[in-house]
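Can anyone check this?
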Amino acid sequence: MLESNLTRSTDLAFQTNLLYLDVTNQRVGIKTAAPGNFALDVNGTARFQDSVSISGDLTVSGDTTVVNTTNMEIEDNFIMLNNGGSTGNDAGIMINRGAAGDNAVFYWDEAADKFKIVTTVSDGSTVTNITDTSFARLAGADPVDAQDFITLNHLATAATITLGDFSFSQNRVTLNNTNADFEFDSTGTGRFVLLGTSGLVLPSGTTAQRPAAYTGIIRYNTDTSKYEVSQDGSTWTALRTEQTSREVIKDVFTGDGSTTTFVSVNVATAPENIIVYIDGVMQEPDQNYTTDGSTSSITFTGGDAPHAGARIVVISGFADAQV
C-alpha cells in the first residue's frame, strides 16, 4: 500500500484537505483541496522557526505586514512608498512612541508640497493625510548645541536664541562679547548697500560715553547735539551740518601796545581753525597766537603785544572746535 501511494498517478488526500497532493499538477495543499497555481498552497497561518531563504520574488497581498526583528537590513538603494497606491496622499516613515497622539513622523506633505518632521495624532492605520501636532527638532538644526544652526521657524517663534557670541531676538541682533567689534566683511570691491526709503540711525551718547577714538569712527554726541568723528584715531572733531553751519565771521580789534589777549565768542576754537592778520600780515597758529576755547579768547605769544593802533583782524567760522 505504501509503495502504491508513493507512486500514485492520481491525487491523494489526508483527512479531506489536511494535506492534499495534487499529483496531476505537482502541487501540495495544506488545509485546502485546491492548491491553486502554487507548488505549495497553505490555507491558514504558517510559522518558520529557522532561517528562510527565498530566491524568487516575495509578494504580500495582505493589508498589514509585520516584521518582528531587532534590526532589519535591506540591500536595495531605494525604498518605494505608495507604489501602486492612491496618489495625492501624504507618505513617509512613522515611529510609534507608545503614547496616544504622540507618534513621530518624517513625511512628504502632499498639500504643502514639502517634507516635514513632526509629532502627530495620526497612527498610520489609514491612508488619510497626517495631522501635525507640532514640529519636531532635527538634531543639529535648531540652535541648542554649539554646532547647531538656526531654522527660520525657530527664529520666528523663539523669544531669544543664542549662537556663539550673538543673541537673536525678533528684529534685534546683539553681540554679547563685551567691547568686541561687530564686524561685517565684504571681500573684493563689493559695497555695503542699505536699501529702502527709511534712514540710518548712528550710535549716540554723551561725551563721557565715547568709545576709544578710531580712524573713521562716527557717532552723535547728545551733550553737544552734533555729529562727531575721529580722523586721526586719537581726537574727536564735531561735524558741521546744514542745521548748525554759519557764515564766515570777521572780528576786528585795535592794539594798544600792551594788551595781548582779545576776547570774542567767535574764536572759541582751535588756533588752526581761524585766520589772523595784524596790519595785513598773516600770523602763524600756535607760533604767533593761541586760543582758549573755554574763555573764547585769542592770545598773542612771544611777549610782544600788538602795537598801539594796530589793526587786528580775526576771521573764524571755518570749523568747529576740536573737542
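Reply from J.R.: I decoded it. The first helix runs from residue 2 to 6.
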